[in-house]
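Bump. Still looking for Transport permease protein structure tokens.
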Amino acid sequence: MYREYLLLTRNRTNLLLAITPSAVYLLLFATSLSRLVGEVRYEGRPIGYPEFAVPALLLSSMLAAATTAGTSLFQERLGRMDVELWSYPLRRGSYVAGKLLVSTLLVLLQSLAALGVSLLVFTFRWPPSHWVAVLCGIAVASMAFNGLYLLLATFFQDFQRFSVTINVLAPTLLFASPSFYPAPQMAPVLRWLSWGNPVTYGIRCIRDGALFGFGAAWPWMLVLLGVAVVTCVLIGRSLMARAREI
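Sorry for the wait, here they are.
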């Protein structure tokens, strides 16, 4: 686990690139958009725009952190760390478990940091039970999106192709979802894309948990938990197969 922690955090450039977009978005919302938009209608009730948009900012932070986790697979391979790794008596199951656990913790901690920054900028009056739902939603979404990005990384052999793909995919997923605008106000094509967009379910999970509590958020949590389980199984098989080839 300590090795995975060093692998994910020693590249300060990647960490800076992962943190900066969320900080910029929060600053922009604090200084302009939150005052400009005021309120939006969501599920038939008016809510403040910061309450509506902050879940999308948290997802933006998750995607950035998950990109760092996916990149670590290529750092391991390009630096020939995988050859060095398997020269020690390490069980493959421990290797897979450590990578999944530490990368998920990175995504979770960065998402919680983004939530903490948003609390410094905005004021939310959610009941305690809603806060618990938000934290559970963040945890489940972190597992799901870390799994999706790691799984995507296992399909690429070339780092540049992965980098280009992920940098195009992340904003596409974010803006082709009801992130900064209610679904009824989205263009028809974007609305259709949002139905199969995993970011939609992550945002709905956190947003519904914040506004309505567990009663509205648990279906989305189950979907994300299912995604997390499936991706973890597939990642485990892929990493085990790669380890046997070394």
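The chain has ten helices and two strands.

Edit: fixed formatting.
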